Amino acid sequence: MQFPNIDPVIFEIGPFVLRWYSLAYMVGLIFAWRYAVSLANRPAIWAHSVPYTPEHVENYVPWVTLGIILGGRLGYVSFYNPSYYLANPSDILAVWHGGMSFHGGLIGAILTTYIYTRRHKLSFLMWADITAACAPVGIFLGRIANFINGELWGRTSDVAWAIVFPGAGSLPRHPSQLYEAVLEGLLLMFVISILIFKFRALTKTGLTAGVFALGYGAARFTIEFFREPDKHLGLIAMDLSMGQLLSLPLILLGLYLIRRALRKTA
Predict the structure, then answer these.
(1) Range of 185's domain?
(2) CA distances from 29 to 33, 42, 135, 141, 240 (A)
(3) pLDDT tens by residue, 51-96
């Protein structure tokens, strides 16, 4: 299959340029905000009273947005190409050239969530649960934007749905961006929604965050076998990619949080 030639730029007016990737971030954050507010309006899914208000969400969104963007960029700089950015520090903030790390964004979100909850005397793990419930849609949109940009393609393959990506040579490749969109986005959102609305997972503090960490980590680790490793990094320890190595601690964190939540409610 040939890659569908979609312009990564939606439109531009003078110096203003709107790209699909930027739109994915904006829509994902708006969805997360509204979804978190909707959870606050459903007392039946909580153990007792709803532990936060819509105003808490509105105040939290700027914090977590900053954490995701700064963490995502600094994570990419630190994990994927530190030697280049040490030699070219002026490019660190040039996000329009691409380069964001999910794991870095997650670290940024965790740090800003911790600071926010400490300032407002709220439960950190409870807010981690809320953020985890909202995150998969943003991940889905981001991976679709990666596909539109024709980046982060998969390894060469002869499967019927393999795609010839521009800039990746003449051989067809796995559309690994779409695999990630489905597993890390849609499937994880479905599983977490079932746990929240059918099994009241939010009554077990830390469980939703644990399921997200385990689900994302396991999905990313698996899909990396189909995704082309970064050219300047290749495979690292034990023939694993950087994405897989970064996902292993996430899997362990998820298992720990799930075990902790279930033991506390047993």
Answers:
(1) 9-264
(2) 6, 20, 9, 11, 31
(3) 888 899 999 999 999 999 999 999 989 888 888 888 888 888 776 6
Radius of gyration of the chain (CA): 19
d(CA 77, CA 88): 11
Give the pairing of strands 16-19 and 9-13.
antiparallel
Q: Is residue 132 part of a domain?
A: yes
User: What DSSP state is assigned to residue 39?
Assistant: H
HSE-up (13 A, CA, CB side) for residue 128: 26
Query: Which 8-state DSSP code applies to residue 228?
Result: P
Joined tokens for residue 204: 């077990």
Alpha-carbon span 189 to 216, nearest angstrom: 10
Residue range 108-150, pLDDT digits in tens: 999 999 999 999 999 999 999 999 999 999 999 999 999 999 9
- The verdict on residue 3 lying in a domain is no
In a domain, 1, yes or no: no
For residue 16, what is the enclosing H or E element? strand 16-19
Task: Please give the tally of structural domains in the chain.
Answer: 1
Overall pTM > 0.90 = yes
Q: Which two tokens stand for residue 154?
A: 């998969």
- Of 236, 232, 243, 237, the C-alpha closest to 85 is 232
Cβ atoms of 31 and 137 within 8 Å: the answer is yes
Structure tokens at 10: 């939606």
Q: Is residue 174 part of a domain?
A: yes
Nearest to 207 by CA among 137, 256, 134: 256
Q: Which of 90, 88, 92, 89 is nearest to 73 (CA)?
A: 92
